[in-house]
Amino acid sequence: MSVRVQDLTRTFRKGKGWRPKGDQVTALDGLTLHVPEHEVHGLLGPNGAGKTTLCKILSTILLPTSGTAEVLGHDVVSGAAEIRRHVGIVFGGERGLYGKLTARQTLRYWAALHLLPDARAKERTDALLTRLGLADKADDLVETFSRGMKQRVHLARGLIGDPKLILFDEPTTGMDPVAARDFRELITELRDEGRTILITTHDMDEAEEVCDRVTLIDNGRVLATETPRGLAEMSGLHRWVEAETTLDVTGIPGVVGTETRNGLLRVKTTDDRAARAVLDFLLDNGVRSVHAVPPRLEDVYLDLIGRRGMEV
Amino acid sequence: MRLFLSGARTQFWLVRRHPDELLTLCTIPFTVVMLLSIVMHAARPDLIANAFLAPTLIGLWGFSTGLAAEVLVGERWTSTLELGMAAPGSLHPVYLGRISAVMLLGVVPLGETWLLGKLLFGVAPTVHHPWVFWAAMAASVFAMAGTSLLLAVTMLLSKNSNNYLNFIGFPIYLLSGVMVPVQYLPEFLQPLSHVIFLSWSADLMRDSLAAAPVAGAGWRLLAIVGLGVAALVGGRVLLALSLRRARELGTVTYA
Amino acid sequence: MRDQLRVLKHGLIASWTMYSAYQTWRLWTFTWLSRLLIQACFYALIGRMLGSQQQVDYLLIGNVVAVMAIDATVVILISVGERQSGTLALMVAAPSTHLTVYLGKGLVNLGSGVAASTTAFLVLPPLFGVRLPWPEAALVPLMILVVGVSCYCYGTCVASFVLGFPSARWLALNVSYLVLMTFCGVNVPTSFWPDWLRAITSVLPMTHGLAAIRAFIAEAPASTVLGQLALEVCVGAGWLAVAAMSFTRMVRRGRRDGSIEFGG
């Protein structure tokens, strides 16, 4: 097991100063999460759900208030030193980089901080620069890089210590579609190398595509942990049937509602059986362009977390 | 005039929000203590006037150049300069207004110096010719505004403006004789002093503190004001030129 | 230990790269070095106005050493900048200690300060008729280095406290070096100050080191010079220890209350 979190709670006090005296805010509220090795695991949830707090605790820069969190078999409180050797962090955005260093210098610098001997640091730097397509620009200043390239520097930096667990915090923020696709490929490669990956994201398509399993978090609690498809299946969400027709289907048992958009009829049904009944009815009446649509992760997210998900 | 006033008002707001920019006011006490301790330790009460004038004028200069340059250079960083250029009003009065607001604050070091001298060392020089003293102070503040505009525009054009701004302080203090009168400088440097308004200010104010009658006060005041006007005109012309250049080339910095 | 030295080495390379991105030799010489030289001249000239060579000697030597204090304490700005660049979380989460990086962040500037003071020491005395006991005076730059390191330690200590109040960094920097320049025997002997103030100056850097340099130039017995230098080293070590504790405490507190910001 790479990550084993049990009843993890973290509270903060609002306010400023040395000992803030304001209201208590609960960021994590008895959260339990298990991530086995070699898994790409997505953490989904609106802003303020507790995703970043969890990442902070797992990366040992924040202590839990109660409960336990183990990373690679070490406790985040007592075994922080061990954890730090094997965990890599990748931020989205541009913070955490030195604009006046080149990509190569950045990696060498962080290699030293990850206690890599010089020879090994050099080898790993070259390998990562090549792997992430930065070799041509290795000696250019990071500040001259595009956003996507800065993100790749961040990735390389996070990988420099050859981590067993990688924490990605909103990694595709600001990436263009091509860069985002490359990034997804990279994630798969990293998993195939035997690493465990934990990603926080708002991007449902991304989560659906790269994650083996996802955990929905809201208000510091786990709402569900499942494969993206399984989450949709077990969510009990409505099945949709789409067809190019003007027929009236509202009389069929299990039909919850219909809507017509651009000549396309969308029928909302309670379950698989009802969906099948609608399909049969439409096919029997000679409608040819017909298909059933399983709920997507995004639907599940919106259903479970509600409108607030839209605000992020 | 309206633009001038709105510039001045903006500057007061900005200063209130960024107390960091009032840094000079916090460093003045150290200059006061340093210089007064030197003359007190050397038992030279006759030089107390020098030790009072120096922090006052250093404060005025440091405060004004720092903040005034910040007005324009800061604008460049925050790219509000471009916005300003795109605005319909003329820019000069706005900037001059903001810089002048800074100048008014530049008188504060005077009060600060006198207060600290009295509190910490129990001394204060007698102002024997108050009219001359205040006239010289007013003329200096005016000349400072002009000089600041000139400096600020020069800074705007340079890539390493902070380095230059940092650099220029002590040479000016030395050349203008704010503490040590110009005649103690090597002779070949002395002519340079005459083109720095601060040297006229320092001389005249020192004389106004002394008991002896002040000779040629009018002419000397005129010299301060004249140098101020020259700097003001120079600064304005340079600002106009550089803004025109900026429109043509799409860049403000000369680099 | 070897790991930490490697961190220090790469930290230095990084600092140097960043420093030289803004500074060139020419820029340094014509703006920074010359500014510091002129600053020392400004004070030495006061000595001339006071009318005694002894005063000139005192003020010149004091200020030649003191001008280095600005560079030595610039570490205050740099560590705040480091924190603002969002790397603290990454550093804490790395297996090495963040202490080495933070405490070593301003060493390049310390080098600049020591170089400036040394240049001032070589160039200015002849201009002001200050006699130095050559060739022994060649040891003075080494003493300047000791004072510099001690001032630097003091700077890191201030930095460790200012990290919590980043908007005060400029004020903290200015006050930090001005305190040294004003009270630590640069312009007037510390005996000029009231007893309580003199007691404070004795635990500030510069005081003892400058006293050692003055004693050395006046050809005082070696024991006096070495004694003062030893005190200077102790003062520096004390400030460094407090700095290290304070940085560690900051991170410990940050882990407790979540004030270590995660980038993004």
Structure description:
Chain A: One of its GO terms (biological process) is response to antibiotic. Chain A: Keywords: Antibiotic resistance, ATP-binding, Nucleotide-binding, Transport. The complex is a heterotrimer of chains A (312), B (255) and C (264). Chain A has helices at residues 51-58, 80-86, 103-113, 118-131, 147-159, 177-192, 204-210, 228-234, 272-284, 297-305, 308-311; strands spanning 3-13, 24-35, 40-44, 66-71, 74-75, 87-91, 165-169, 196-201, 213-218, 221-226, 239-243, 255-261, 264-269, 290-293. Chain A has 312 residues and is an alpha/beta fold. In chain A, α3 crosses α4. The longest helix of chain A is centred in the middle third of the chain and has 16 residues, at 177-192. By secondary structure, chain B is mainly α. Chain B has one domain (2-249). Chain B is 76% helix and 0% strand. Chain B has helices at 2-17, 23-41, 48-77, 80-86, 91-105, 108-121, 130-157, 161-175, 190-193, 197-209, 217-249. Chain C is an all-alpha fold and 264 residues long. Chain C has one domain. Helix content of chain C is 77%, strand content 0%. Chain C has 13 helices and no strands. Chain C has helices at residues 2-22, 25-50, 53-66, 68-73, 75-84, 88-92, 98-104, 107-127, 140-162, 169-183, 195-201, 207-217, 222-257. In chain C, α5 (75-84) runs parallel beside α9 (140-162), α9 (140-162) packs antiparallel against α12 and α12 (207-217) packs antiparallel against α13 (222-257). The model of chain C has no long low-confidence stretch (mean pLDDT 88). The chains are: A alpha/beta (312), B mainly alpha (255), C mainly alpha (264). The interface between A and C is large, with 46 and 32 residues.
